[in-house]
Amino acid sequence: MLFGHEKTEMLHLPTPLEHLKNVSEDLGISVYCKRDDLTNLATGGNKLRKLEYFLKDAQYKGATMLITEGGAQTNHGRLTAAVAAKYGMKSAIVTSDPYPGEISANLLLDGMLGCNVHFVKDMETGRQAVIDKYTAKGEKVYYVPMGGSNELGILGYAECASELDAQAKEMGIDDAEIYVTVGSMSTYMGLLIGLKECGSSLRVKGVNVLPYSENAADEKGNEAALREALSDYYKRICEFYGRDFNVSPDDFDITTSCIHGAYNNAVEEVREVMYYLARKEAIIIDPCYTGKTFEAIVDRARRGDIKQGTNVIFMHTGGLPGIYTLHHRVEFERELMPYMHIEE
Ligand SMILES: Cc1ncc(COP(=O)(O)O)c(C=O)c1O
């Protein structure tokens, strides 16, 4: 029970907090990885912690089906489908992206999990039409918002904050900066609120990968827009729970410097840190979310912006299937071809 809300336990928690010895030696800072990529359904990821709470709410309301929305390659959609499959419910994803021409990456897993993906022209009308269609067929639909980011969506990571705080204490880490990806915001917001609630000395830094302003290349504009979105979101959270969590706008420690101009674009610098982490620690990150966040850590450490000896916790939020998306895969294949040796 957290802030008056129960969850349906489906995960093997806590996820490990690992010291990355090789990366730490190389960067001259102590880097740890919180392995939320190892959460145990359908290749894992951060959305499952949120879905423990959504599922409980859906079960309480007698739902027979989970419907959510996102990009065609939504990790959140795949994990919503996974939870529905495991708990005997139907599922559907609504996306306003076009059909990409192949069933790969998350779309492949969605299909395997028995989830219907609806490619609609307009989200506002398309979403409701899909919900109405299943309702007319007799389903009791529970709608999970994009990214699982409504007021309930903070609970998974508010809980993770105290889990992480306890693990850090156990490992003798009394001061650290947690780097986490900011997309639809509830992972970051949950951590921030959860750390405040348990009086933790750990600090959370958000790395934004989803442009919040019209001009994705405008770093300052994006930061201002994200700050406003975070403030609005926080206000709604306080209203919903009927209390304040003592978060002030000054607590929003975020960067928009790793967006690289667009959401989910193929970026050489990001692939470089993906290869770096794979080759140093055998940990696979993704090109859309975690790759950009890990890039922020490596980049800041190399520039000396993270002081030598600082403890850094990289929150690995999953996203593995993203490496199989066509526009990323072609770049990987081109760059990794030299590792293929066709012997005569
Ligand atoms: C792999 C991965 N990491 C991080 C995030 C960002 O989490 P949030 O949407 O809660 O900000 C997402 C969101 O889709 C994700 O799929």
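^ pyridoxal-5'-phosphate complex. Residues 45-46, 75-76, 147, 149, 181-188, 286, 289-290, 317-319 surround pyridoxal-5'-phosphate (CB under 6 Å). Residues 47-148 form a domain with the Rossmann fold fold (CATH 3.40.50.1100).
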